[in-house]
């Protein structure tokens, strides 16, 4: 949108250039303006009056939210249980309860318009991270077997998991925390998790992907994997993020508000925190990579029914004669079985 003063100046300069012998199309091109726009300005008298678009009276959309509905959206966004969730997770969670208030973009727009807390309009995970996050090598070693089929990472950092061997559900199906990083712990965790998940009955055995550390390459671990029929796989040398699922899980864990910035006091404290985190991650967390269902729901095959129910809520008529309620994001739609 060009201001009135700029329009008048452009018209004067172009008229002057044309009187001096310059071609109008070349002069307009130099000014970053099309000849058609210049002609329209002169024909409509736009050089004498300001642009009318900002002050134009526009009809109110038929499906616009009422003041009561906007207040309900704002109240929901500021509810305690949604305090640390973005609208992308709020809308699917409400749909699971059979409730549709507004789309994700409407949540953001209403919160911004009503001058709500800026964290609702654009909640960033950085806001949940402690101001000073100083990493300290804790007095325990977190044995991690991570995502997508199997993935593994062991080291002195976080707790961690053995996700789903049958589909990328992101569920943590096995975890342990020890005060030493030895192959015996890794072999025990792999064996216990494989027996609990019935991997021996699977026709297609999973692959255990891990880092290039000595623990997962030890003879004890390799013998256990061979006995279970699991093929080992390792990250490429000097590729720190080759295990993307495990790295994503680490970030989710470290950005949790209750994660201690200064490390854990002892081994028991780290195990208690890991237990709470695994319960939250598997049951309560709505994972964006699996259409905002929990990893446990995806692991148990409940996600298709949940997504179908959400779609029914979003397609439900808002009133007897009103338009269909449709979600604007495709991430929550049911996936093909």
Count of helical segments? Answer: 13
Question: Which percent band covers the strand fraction?
Answer: 5-15%
Mean pLDDT: 77
Percent helix range: 40-55%
Adjacency order of strands in the biggest sheet: 3-4-1-2-5-6
User: Span from first to last CA?
Assistant: 49 Å
CATH superfamily of the largest domain: Ribonuclease H-like superfamily/Ribonuclease H
Number of strands: 6
Under CATH at level 1, the class of the largest domain stands as: Alpha Beta
Could you characterize what this model shows?
- The chain has 3 domains: 4-44; 65-128 and 302-337, no CATH class; 141-287, 2-Layer Sandwich (Nucleotidyltransferase, domain 5).
- The protein is 42% helix and 9% strand.
- The protein has 13 helices and 6 strands.
- The chain has a 6-stranded mixed β-sheet with strand order 3-4-1-2-5-6, sandwiched between helices.
- The chain is elongated, with a radius of gyration of 29 Å.
- The relative contact order is 0.11.
- Residues 116-166, 320-324, 326-331 and 333-337 have low confidence and may be disordered.
Keywords:
337 residues, alpha/beta, Nucleotidyltransferase, domain 5, 3 domains, 13 helices, 6 strands, 42% helix, disordered C terminus
SSE order and pairing:
Elements: H1 4-19, H2 24-31, H3 35-44, H4 67-77, H5 87-96, H6 104-113, H7 118-121, E1 141-146, E2 150-155, E3 161-163, E4 172-178, H8 183-196, E5 207-210, H9 219-228, E6 231-234, H10 244-254, H11 267-284, H12 295-299, H13 303-315
Parallel strand pairs: 2-5, 5-6
Antiparallel strand pairs: 1-2, 1-4, 3-4
Helix pairs in contact: 1-2, 5-6, 8-9
